[in-house]
């Protein structure tokens, strides 16, 4: 294992210290328990938007803490959900008197820890669970679909709503509307190595790719020979389009995401193909996001996320945001 | 002869050592069907339990169990943190303020732990989770009343069998469920850690 780390045990804390050093104007890092809070928290009268999850997906979630997006992020150990006392601490530190909305990705550990925190909180707390990954079958016999790329779009849009003064019920309803309109799927060309494990999470031959990968190195839907970029984009886009389903005349936000190890040159190449495929189907790409925003450590691979937009979502997407990873209108 | 707060502390020290010893094994089991964090999360949690036990001396078995619960909840993360935390919390509530635990109290605590895990995680027998180890353990414990060590030993034996029974199962809860049929053929790491903990408690009780 070759990584820029001192000690696998302190990777998360060490990275958080660096993050504090890099962005003192945007955020405050607390280490015990680990919580990243926006620098001007708590904001009086504003609904606090709080998320969190395992580390290793940077910039998700700490990179999205700041004006117009998250009030706090709770980073767990690498690929491990945060503990409920981290979430509870975030709720207390960001309490501006208007309640808190917890944005939870649908993984068993995340759901249980956020649920416990909600039960322990003394202020008003509601939570929404995002499950946009079409690779996983949603049935009584699984933990349900995973929360992946759609999380980034959800945090931006709901964060903007809270910033303009929407109340807790309105933020929750908007979040449910976004969750109902967003779908994603990813693929991996290589595995990734969790620091405390020291070896790759799974093995992929040089000529293989895994379609439907999760963001924790979980195996996906199927393992197939590596194809061309056009084949890869189709393999991700088709199931996404069929699932909602998206139809001709829809206006969408297309989010082309790197799993961490795929360079921008390949990501733009893939994004261009995806835009063309959508245009061919009469779907209008109104907004786009391209880059590494929800990653799996150093994994090579990508995910595509489509969000069906309405006028309000477009307005909120365009609203000013000032965070380490997303910044416009400021 | 009952089991005092000091006995429970001694059992937890054995458990912490067992978790440390099996850390890599639990990581490997989790790597196959989950996200490779169970061994490390349990090690982190029980290391924290040890330092709390070094610093504090809870007066009753119930208080020891509660300290374990709050420590695991705040240090383990993942699904195991809330699940084991809830298990110890319910066990603590079940034994109340008793100074010593007899066979019946230990059996009752195990039953309460199982009920807590089921309430929190909503898993049932056959879902390929720790419930598959804990359920038979509770049943076995209830059938023994000769000594606390015998109760825990019966529970541990049943838990190991229960854990083994998860190998052919297709997971229906947790991250392993994403694999569907591909999860069959692997031992569930949570069921394995449950069996290991009960064996550690039984071994400690036998020496007490």
From TrEMBL, chain A:
Gene Ontology molecular function: any one: phosphoenolpyruvate-glycerone phosphotransferase activity
Origin organism lineage: Bacteria, Bacillati, Actinomycetota, Actinomycetes, Pseudonocardiales
Protein source organism: Lentzea indica
Full protein name: Dihydroxyacetone kinase subunit DhaK
Enzyme class: transferase
Domain DhaK: from-to ranges: 7-328
SUPFAM superfamilies: DAK1/DegV-like (SSF82549)
Pfam families: Dak1
NCBIfam families, alphabetized: dhaK1
Gene: dhaK
UniProtKB/TrEMBL annotation, chain B:
Residue intervals of the DhaL domain: 6-203
Pfam families found in the cross-reference section: Dak2 (PF02734)
InterPro entries, alphabetized: DhaK_L_YcgS, DhaL_dom, DhaL_dom_sf, Dihydroxyacetone_Kinase
Kinase is among the record's keywords: yes
Entry keyword set: Kinase, Transferase
Domain of life: Bacteria
GO molecular function, one term: kinase activity
Protein name: Dihydroxyacetone kinase subunit L
């Amino acid at each position: 294992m070759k990584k820029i780390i001192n000690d696998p045990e302190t990777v998360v804390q060490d990275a958080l210290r660096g993050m504090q050093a890099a962005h003192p104007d945007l955020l405050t890092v607390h280490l015990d328990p680990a919580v990243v809070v926006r620098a001007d928290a708590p904001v009086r009268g504003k609904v606090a938007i709080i998320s969190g999850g395992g580390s290793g997906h940077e910039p998700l979630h700490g990179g999205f803490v700041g004006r117009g997006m998250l009030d706090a992020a709770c980073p767990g150990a690498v690929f491990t959900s945060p503990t409920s006392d981290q979430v509870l601490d975030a709720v207390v530190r960001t309490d501006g008197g208007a309640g808190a909305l917890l944005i939870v990705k649908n993984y068993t550990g995340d759901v249980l820890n956020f649920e416990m925190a909600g039960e322990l909180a003394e202020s008003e707390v509601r939570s929404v669970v995002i499950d946009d990954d079409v690779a996983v079958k949603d049935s009584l016999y699984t933990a349900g679909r995973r929360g992946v790329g759609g999380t980034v779009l959800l945090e931006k849009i709901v964060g903007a709503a809270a910033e303009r003064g929407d109340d807790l019920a309105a933020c929750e309803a908007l979040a449910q509307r976004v969750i109902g309109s967003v779908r994603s799927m990813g693929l991996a060309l290589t595995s990734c190595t969790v620091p405390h494990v020291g070896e790759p999470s799974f093995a992929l031959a040089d000529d293989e790719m895994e379609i439907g990968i999760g963001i924790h190195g979980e195996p996906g839907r199927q393992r197939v020979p590596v194809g061309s970029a056009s084949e890869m984009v189709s393999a991700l886009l088709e199931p996404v389009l069929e699932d909602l389903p998206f139809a001709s005349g829809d206006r969408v936000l297309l989010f082309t995401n790197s799993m961490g190890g795929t360079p921008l040159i390949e990501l733009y190449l893939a994004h261009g193909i995806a835009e063309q495929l959508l245009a061919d189907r009469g779907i209008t790409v109104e907004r786009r996001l391209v880059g590494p925003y929800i990653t799996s450590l150093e994994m090579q691979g990508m995910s595509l996320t489509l969000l069906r937009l309405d006028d309000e979502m477009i307005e909120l997407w365009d609203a000013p945001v000032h965070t380490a990873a997303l910044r416009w209108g400021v | 002869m009952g089991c005092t707060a000091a006995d429970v502390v001694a059992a937890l020290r054995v458990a912490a050592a067992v978790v440390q010893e099996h850390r890599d094994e639990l990581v490997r089991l989790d790597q196959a069907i989950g996200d490779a964090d169970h061994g490390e999360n349990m090690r982190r949690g029980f290391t924290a339990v040890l330092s709390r036990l070094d610093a504090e001396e809870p007066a009753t078995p119930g208080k020891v169990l509660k300290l374990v619960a709050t420590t695991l909840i705040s240090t383990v993360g993942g699904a195991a943190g809330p699940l084991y935390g809830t298990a110890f919390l319910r066990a603590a509530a079940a034994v109340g303020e008793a100074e010593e635990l007899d066979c019946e109290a230990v059996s009752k605590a195990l039953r309460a732990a199982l009920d807590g895990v089921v309430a929190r995680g909503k898993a049932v027998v056959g879902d390929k989770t720790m419930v598959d180890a804990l359920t038979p353990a509770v049943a076995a414990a209830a059938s023994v009343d000769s000594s606390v060590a015998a109760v825990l030993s019966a529970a541990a034996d049943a838990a190991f069998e229960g854990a083994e029974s998860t190998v052919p199962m297709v997971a229906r809860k947790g991250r392993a469920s994403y694999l569907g049929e591909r999860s069959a053929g692997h031992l569930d790491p949570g069921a394995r850690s449950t069996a290991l903990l009960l064996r550690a408690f039984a071994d400690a009780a036998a020496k007490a």
